[in-house]
Design goal:
The complex is a heterodimer of chains A (about 190) and B (about 220).
Chain A: H1 11-18, H2 22-44, H3 47-64, H4 74-107, H5 118-133, H6 138-149, H7 154-161, H8 165-189
Chain B: H1 3-15, H2 21-61, H3 63-68, H4 133-144, H5 148-161, H6 168-181, H7 185-196, H8 206-221
Classes of the chains: A mainly alpha (about 190), B mainly alpha (about 220).
């Protein structure tokens, strides 16, 4: 499933954002928060940190909009803003994840923690991938999430991260190779 | 498990419905707060500019350096006229046109007058600022005309009209010297006391003021 690029006319909204209209930030939030939140959740792998990233993205919007050239949609631009603010939040999420991993490792000694429900199993898979993503450089992580989890084209991703398309493909290739290695290791142990 | 399975799970993670209303409220509050902060930042920036400008002015006019350095005896632009003898050792008699009380008082050596910020009227440096014109006039009357009564009036005029002027300390000190010259010793002592106490510009002319006051006391109390 590909997330639709917003084709709605952003011009008026962008103009109001440029004028410093705070109601326009609210409007942008209503229109795009779900997409930004989904990206943030996939990127940082944790709900509360993702909310912080969404918050920072929209707070930064009135200032960031000055650099908006209209070459991409406002939603893609917002994802770019989120990427620029992601580093600190990823660090926070990694710390939390490592702390909970330690706790989880202690609890797994107990047999009662096994849950066979499909939802939990998929949650575990997602958590495992998030933990593996923690080992990647930020650029590769962002490209992987945008290309694989969000299923965006390399052209779109190149516009979002401000890098050439070839660089995006290379980052994605390296990210996937490293993730395969890590996840196979983890899978082998379990 | 394959990487694709993990990716599918990660994709679902982002699809979880969340209304985001609490974050929306946070964004609104942060922006409102940030607006207030920017307003405060504007005021602080204006104050900072004012502070920098004041400091620059202080350095340019030498006031700040004067505050942080001990008073340097300046070369007097002109010797004090011979109303009162200068530089003699203690027992030397006072040469004064006015009658002296019977007991021979110790000589009052009028020290070098307060340094002026440059010979204002005749300086090769840039034209004196309008704020120092009154001081320049007083300076002229004191040093060149030796007209102490007129100089006293002129220093008073400067102090009244420019109470926060650049040369207030000098004017106050020179005014005190005028009083000494005019033999108004009680007033002179009162005028010198803050200098002797070190309360003017953190010790400006303190030692000289103390010496003068001692001599004035000596004169007022008669010979010891």
């Amino acid at each position: 499933m590909t997330l639709p690029m917003v084709a709605a006319p952003d011009d008026d909204l962008v103009a109001r954002l440029r004028d410093g209209d705070r109601a326009a930030v609210e409007q942008a939030y209503i229109a795009h928060h779900a997409a930004i939140r989904a990206f943030a959740r996939r990127l940082v792998g944790e709900t509360s940190t993702a909310e912080d990233l969404v918050h920072d993205t929209f707070v930064a919007l009135p200032r960031a909009i000055r650099s908006f050239r209209g070459e991409a949609s406002l939603r893609s631009f917002l994802i770019g803003v989120a990427v620029n603010h992601a580093k600190r939040h990823i660090r926070t999420a990694v710390r939390r994840r490592r702390a909970t991993e330690k706790l989880a490792a202690q609890q797994e000694v107990l047999p009662s923690t096994i849950d066979a429900t499909d939802v939990l199993a998929r949650k575990r898979l997602a958590d495992r991938l998030s933990a593996a993503l923690d080992e990647l450089p930020l650029e590769q992580r962002v490209v992987f999430v945008l290309c694989e989890a969000e299923q965006r084209t390399s052209v779109e991703v190149a516009a979002i991260v401000g890098a050439p398309e070839g660089t995006v493909r290379t980052r994605l290739m390296h990210a996937k190779r490293k993730l395969r290695e890590q996840l196979e290791d983890v899978g082998g142990e379990r | 498990m394959k990487l694709d399975d993990h990716i599918a799970a990660l994709r679902e993670l982002g699809d979880e419905p969340l209304d985001g209303s609490s974050t929306r409220l946070r964004v609104r509050r942060t922006l409102e707060h940030g607006h207030g902060m920017r307003r405060h930042a504007g005021v602080l920036a204006a104050l900072a500019v004012l502070l920098v400008a004041s400091a620059s002015w202080g350095f340019a006019t030498g006031r700040i350096q004067r505050w942080f350095s001990p008073p340097v005896p300046s070369p007097s632009p002109s010797p004090t006229p011979a109303k009162i003898a200068m530089h003699e050792p203690a027992p030397a008699p006072i040469v004064e046109p006015t009658p002296v009380p019977a007991p021979v008082p110790a000589p009052i050596v009028v020290p070098t007058p307060a340094p002026t910020p440059a010979p204002i009227a005749k300086s090769p440096t840039p034209t004196p600022a309008p704020t120092s014109r009154r001081y320049a006039k007083a300076h002229e009357l004191y040093f060149h005309d030796a007209n102490y009564a007129a100089a006293l009036e002129a220093f008073d005029d400067y102090l009244v009209h420019e109470p926060t002027g650049q040369f207030v300390a000098e004017a106050r000190y020179n005014r005190a010297l005028c009083l000494v010259h005019l033999d108004q010793l009680a007033d002179a002592k009162l005028a010198l006391q803050p200098f002797a106490d070190g309360t003017v510009l953190a010790g400006y002319r303190q030692a000289e003021a103390k010496t003068l006051i001692e001599k004035i006391d000596h004169r007022l109390n008669g010979t010891r």
